[in-house]
Amino acid sequence: MDLADSAEEAAFRREVRDWLGDHLAGEFAEAKGLGGPGREHEAFDVRLAWDRHLAAHGWTCLGWPEEFGGRGASLHRQVIFHEEYARAGAPVRVGRIGEELLGPTVIAFGTPEQQRRFLPPIVSVRELWCQGYSEPGAGSDLANLSTRAALDDGEWVVHGQKVWTSLAHVADWCFLLARTDPAGSRHAGLSCLLVPMDQPGVQVRPIVQLTGTSEFNEVFFDGARTGADDVVGAVGEGWRVAMGTLGFERGVGTVDQQVVFRRELAGIVALARSNGAIEDPVLRDRIVRARIGLEIMRFHALRTLTGVAEGTSGPEASIAKLYWAGFHRGLGELVMEVAGAGGLAADGPPYELDEWQRLFLFTRADTIYGGSDEIQRTIVAERVLGLPREPRP
């Protein structure tokens, strides 16, 4: 991938930068920096209004084809937007699960009727989505799930439990995997269903995290119902659809994640300068290594995204997940060392954390969510290095 902007791309970068500069003002001036890991609770209504403001000006779903409400933006332009968005300190989006995961899945696997029904409200940020994959006994081993669904009087009836369901407490819909063929084993007999959240058969329970916030939830489906046609892909082919969704999860949105990492590192450097920790040669060396690590991460991500755009991506996404998760967890550890003993005390009772304490605590989960390190290493070992497969029960 050519990392240099062409003249047209440079003009697009200026357009994005100028628009964000003009619109992150007035009622949205205080939205800067809101949201993020362990901070998804912050000013939700303001961030939702900001997302809808983006939509009204054509800045949502950039990479989607124009016929589905997007701009058909090239990969490079999508990268530019995400970089400038993060650099502007714009708030973390609340509609990202629909835009980055469910929408592309419906475009790739959905029927024309599903595309007409579900895509426009994602573009306009009028319906929010959550993802129902993990279960108490089926996290990284997703094929072991036990949530089941059966047809009854023209509707799917869903029973089961999902866990670690991000933003389920604010979502209008959930796309979930359920076993629709009881005779199927493992990957066979699963289906991807679209289930409305606002109904008697759905109960959402927040999970309190180390940060004291509740971005994640457990969701119970006890007779929840959805239409017989609300299946993405063919009935029984949910595994194929789910793998497609996970491929989209490793998409261009990871670029702004890295710019956030860069902003966090800049804050750590400022903290080290202010408290004198920068004079410690060991800490200074670790800060330098973190800066180098960011550049490596960016180049690898862009190379991986090029493969996605060309349809040649493979286990590189697992390598990227391993790299950024370990990097970010290390960044959380680094800031606590820079902060020193004072970083161990909360700002106030009973549990008032500062941004660095919250960063440290949340990053402990980076090597678990989105595919644990153990699973990613297995994928790399078997699919890249050609090592023997792990014994399966």
TrEMBL record:
Cross-referenced PANTHER family: ACYL-COA DEHYDROGENASE, ACYL-COA DEHYDROGENASE FADE29
Domain Acyl-CoA dehydrogenase/oxidase N-terminal: 7-124
Family note: Belongs to the acyl-CoA dehydrogenase family.
Cofactor annotation: FAD
Occurrences of domain Acyl-CoA dehydrogenase/oxidase C-terminal (ranges): 236-385
Cited Pfam families: Acyl-CoA_dh_1, Acyl-CoA_dh_M, Acyl-CoA_dh_N
Domain Acyl-CoA oxidase/dehydrogenase middle: 130-222
Keywords: FAD, Flavoprotein, Oxidoreductase
InterPro entries (alphabetical): Acyl-CoA_Oxase/DH_mid-dom (IPR006091), Acyl-CoA_Oxase/DH_mid-dom_sf (IPR046373), AcylCo_DH-like_C (IPR036250), AcylCo_DH/oxidase_C (IPR009075), AcylCoA_DH/ox_N (IPR013786), AcylCoA_DH/ox_N_sf (IPR037069), AcylCoA_DH/oxidase_NM_dom_sf (IPR009100), Mycobact_Acyl-CoA_DH (IPR052161)
Organism of this sequence: Saccharopolyspora cebuensis
Superkingdom per UniProt: Bacteria
Database matches in Gene3D superfamilies: Acyl-CoA dehydrogenase/oxidase, N-terminal domain, Butyryl-CoA Dehydrogenase, subunit A, domain 2, Butyryl-CoA Dehydrogenase, subunit A, domain 3
Protein name, as recorded: Acyl-CoA dehydrogenase family protein
